[in-house]
Amino acid sequence: MNRVFRSHIIDITGIMLIAILVYLISFSSGLGLSFDIPPSLLNLNVIFISILIEALPFVLIGVLIAGFIQIFITEDHIKRWIPKNRTAAVVMSCVAGALFPACECGIVPIIRRLISKGVPVYAAIGFMLTGPLINPIVIASTYMAFGNDFEMAGLRMGLGFLIAIIVAFSVSIFFKSGELKKNLHLPHSSENHRSFLDRIWSMLTHSIDEFFDMAKYLIIGALLASIVQVYMPAKTLLQNADNPIVSLMIMMGFAYVLSLCSEADAFIGASFSSIFPKSSILGFLIFGPMIDFKNTIMMLSVFRMKFVLGVLVLTASVVFFTLLLVQNFI
């Protein structure tokens, strides 16, 4: 526990400072503070808190599941399910990713292990694209974020799965083996030799690490979304919202920069549903979990730059043109 506290002392301190600031703003009138807080800042504070309250339960569930997968599910288990045939391997890898809910924060180390143990790179990419996007936690959070309406959750899962298959097939055509960086050190896990209680403890500590790793991105995303909603003139957004191409590019770029956790991004995406069309909101919900800024940085530490940029451009292009094609039917 001391190791966990020491390793996250900066994160804990930052969260406490933010909590104190939010408390002072929320109860400024009752505390008798001598200065007046502008109404816009109070409104921003309410939106910020509401986004966090809605998202945090799903983040906690997500990090516990991610910790379980990290400790109890080995890469060998997943590798045995990937067939030799390329078409079957692409489909199965996307299905396997959907069956193993994993946050995009931890997906890159998993696919690195898969490729190092002989899983084709295109199958690993299929797993990477569907793992953070299609799982029960993401479906439930999307369903609740959009007012208990299954339409957006269903479109997110269905179109996301189709896009993942197209990207994985394209990777199988344009990229071959040997995409990992040379001289990459891959430590072997020794979890199987530890007692059950030790593995449970490892799962909990990994979940804590995951939580603090994702919490800062969630807080930043919630704050930026609140700022945009309060201070950006609605007229400016509505002007861009009239153009489906520009609005889709804006929301996809927003998803890439914010790097939100897929278990919680639906609540932020839903907050823009009154401004942007459905296809743009889907661009935010589908593209972000597949590949974002922090994921790109993690991939660059494992794969060659040409491969990472190729996957990034390929994924963005397939998401963009797929949503443009289907926007009149959704």
Features:
330 residues; mainly alpha; 17 helices; 0% strand; globular
Describe the structure.
With 330 residues, this protein is an all-alpha fold. It has 17 helices and no strands. The chain has helices spanning 2-7, 9-26, 28-31, 39-72, 75-79, 86-99, 104-116, 121-130, 136-145, 150-174, 196-231, 234-241, 244-258, 265-270, 278-290, 293-300, 305-326. α10 (150-174) crosses α15 (278-290) and α13 runs antiparallel to α17 (305-326). The longest helix has 36 residues, at 196-231. The radius of gyration is 21 Å and the shape is globular.
Short overview:
The chain is mostly helical. It has helices at residues 2-7, 9-26, 28-31, 39-72, 75-79, 86-99, 104-116, 121-130, 136-145, 150-174, 196-231, 234-241, 244-258, 265-270, 278-290, 293-300, 305-326.
* Low-confidence residue ranges: none
Rounded mean pLDDT is 80
* Continuous helix count: 17
Structural class: mainly alpha
Q: How many extended strands?
A: 0
Major sheet description: none
Bulk shape: globular
Helix content: over 70%
Estimated share of beta-strand residues: under 5%
- The N- to C-terminal Cα distance equals 49 Å
Gyration radius, in Å: 21 Å
Q: Element order, helices and strands? A: HHHHHHHHHHHHHHHHH
Task: Give the helix/strand layout.
Blueprint: H1 2-7, H2 9-26, H3 28-31, H4 39-72, H5 75-79, H6 86-99, H7 104-116, H8 121-130, H9 136-145, H10 150-174, H11 196-231, H12 234-241, H13 244-258, H14 265-270, H15 278-290, H16 293-300, H17 305-326
Helix pairs in contact: 4-9, 4-11, 6-8, 6-10, 7-8, 8-10, 9-10, 10-15, 10-17, 13-15, 13-17, 15-17
